[in-house]
What does this fold into?
Amino acid sequence: MARAMFDYTKAVLSKVSFDVNLFCKELRKALTRLLPYEIEELKIWIASFLKQNPQLNQCLVLLPQ
It folds into this structure.
């Protein structure tokens, strides 16, 4: 089930990437729902996703270091 949540999170973030505020909101929600190792995977995915959508860079401050 955990993998399904991770895949769902990526799908949602992809769909809301047209709006920076909505993307940040969904990212915040995802960080509360995902497991720690999934958050690490999400950081990798977001890094590659932001290369195509640089306007979303401001949401990087939400990610844990």
Q: What stands out?
A: Residues 36-52 form the longest helix (17 residues). The two ends are 26 Å apart (CA to CA).
